[in-house]
Amino acid sequence: MRAVDTLTPCPCGNTVGYMHCCGPLHEGSPAPTAEALMRSRYSAYVLKREDYLLATWHPSTRPAHLKLATQQPAPSWLGLSVKRHQHGTGEAVVEFVARLRYGGGRAQRLHEVSRFVREDGRWYYVDGEILA
Ligand SMILES: [Zn+2]
User: Fold this and answer.
1) What family classification does the UniProt entry report for this protein (predicted)?
2) What pLDDT digit, counting tens, does each position of 33-57 carry?
């Protein structure tokens, strides 16, 4: 099994690889944009980094836990495609399609418009609207 720090491409799909994409964010570097934060959160789902997902979730909407480690059936994340990124100074919207499969089920698409806010120099996920 490969160590996580050699992942190329990055789990979010970026060909520069994990160490130059989502890795530094997972280690605490602030995301420069809401899109970068969104990509790093997708990678965190792939890598089951529940701590990171909760840390980047705005306190006003953050769940107590996600229980990723015990989720059944476990999702397999198949890819991420960012469709749109709109941002002002303190808030942003990112539209994306993530593909995943639960257990041995069929691949499905998760199409979401996520809202983000920036506070004290850091972006946070607020909530998302799932599109059909
Ligand atoms: Zn990445």
Assistant:
1) Belongs to the UPF0225 family.
2) 999 999 999 999 999 999 999 999 9
